[in-house]
Design brief:
There is one protein chain. This protein is 43% helix and 19% strand. By secondary structure, it is α+β, with helices and mostly antiparallel strands. It has two domains: 74 residues, no CATH class; 74 residues, Orthogonal Bundle (434 Repressor (Amino-terminal Domain)). The strands form two sheets. A three-stranded antiparallel beta sheet has the order 1-3-2. A three-stranded mixed beta sheet has the order 5-4-6, covered by helices on one side. A hairpin with a 4-residue loop joins strand 2 and strand 3. Helix 1 runs parallel beside helix 4 and helix 6 crosses helix 7. The protein starts with 7 loop residues before the first helix and ends with a strand. InterPro entries: Cro/C1-type_HTH, DUF7662, Lambda_DNA-bd_dom_sf.
Length: 161
């Protein structure tokens, strides 16, 4: 992130925090960055997308180790610390058994929404949602694909009991 970004003060504010979760109003963010948020920030959830490229605002919170959940009704946003980069997974026949926690952690590590993650995997967004809520588990073939994507993304996990 360039030092000249108007979101630099937000990055620094979040980096100084040791809170796992911070909720602040859009107005407080505007005071912090000394700029007005664009209208899209107040009206469109996608402005708050947790994507790692092409978004100076998302770069600020993601570089600080957070993902966001906006509430457009209350004009607030909750910053949550991203999960750790290392997860313990069970293996069966050299295939990792991906569960709801590790799937969501991989998606967040990649900075993708459920829809974007689904597109990356070639599945429906509903499928990703069902994995993350433990309604279903991915097939063995999808688990292998998840493992390849995790390796490419630098997602670290441990195998064993």
């Amino acid at each position: 992130m360039k030092g000249g970004s108007k979101y630099q003060p937000l990055l620094e504010y979040l980096q100084r925090s040791d809170c796992p979760e911070i909720t602040i109003s859009f107005t407080e963010i505007e005071k912090l960055i000394n700029h007005t948020l664009p209208n899209s920030a107040r009206k469109e959830r996608r402005w708050w997308g947790n994507r790692s490229t092409g978004s100076p605002q998302a770069s600020a919170w993601m570089k600080a180790g957070y993902v966001v959940e906006p509430n457009l009704e209350t004009q607030t946003v909750t910053f949550r610390r991203k999960p750790t980069d290392s997860y313990k997974v069970q293996t069966a026949t050299n295939t990792i058994n991906w569960n709801n926690e590790t799937i969501k952690a991989l998606r967040l590590k990649m900075g993708l929404s459920q829809k974007e993650f689904a597109e990356e995997l070639g599945v429906r967004q509903q499928t990703v949602s069902e994995w993350e809520t433990s309604v279903y588990e991915p097939t063995r073939a999808t688990s292998k694909l998840l493992s390849m994507i995790a390796e490419k993304a630098g997602f670290k996990y441990k195998t064993g009991d």
